[in-house]
Design brief:
Radius of gyration: 16 Å
Distance between the termini: 33 Å
Number of helices: 2
CATH topology: Trna Endonuclease, Chain: A, domain 1
Order of helices and strands: HEEEEEEHE
Helix content: 10-25%
Shape: globular
Largest sheet: 5 strands, mixed
Low-confidence stretches: none
Strand content: 25-35%
């Protein structure tokens, strides 16, 4: 999969379907919204969640975000990071927004302090990366309870 829009749309559809399967009523806005991709309501508790979906089409545990994600925090805001694994059994990593925001901020600070190629200093930019190489958040759907 090479088209980023298609990859993102596929990730949102997979997450919406998985949430429905797990007992949520799901709303996917028709237009691009700033801070969320999916609204989910637990049909048993009526608890509402705002979901930000980030998708990679590859077999990797790395997702690219931006500086604004360092500030997106809330008890009912969650990220679902999707690894489509080239459409071979997608994986879902569910992470509370507070953890994502803190991880991005600390990770970027560390990246800036670490010399780059040939000892060059990294320049400030708005790109951030989130990793879950150890699968700490793999299938953590229980966060949405």
């Amino acid at each position: 999969m090479k088209d980023n829009v298609s990859i993102g749309n596929a990730g949102e559809c997979f997450v919406a379907g998985e949430l429905e399967r797990r007992g949520f009523t799901v709303g996917v806005p028709m237009s691009n919204t700033r801070d969320f991709d999916i609204l989910a309501i637990d049909r048993k508790t009526n608890r509402q969640f705002v979901i930000q979906v980030k998708t990679t089409g590859y077999k990797q545990k790395k997702w690219t975000l931006s500086q604004k994600n360092e500030e997106l925090r809330g008890d009912n805001i969650f990220y679902v990071f999707v690894a489509l694994n080239e459409l071979d059994n997608p994986e879902y990593h569910i992470v509370p927004s507070n953890i994502v925001a803190t991880t991005l901020k600390e990770g970027h600070k560390e990246w800036l302090a670490t010399p780059g190629k040939n000892g060059r200093v990294h320049n400030e930019n708005t790109m951030r990366n989130f990793f879950d190489k150890e699968d700490l958040y793999l299938n953590k759907w229980d966060y949405l309870k």
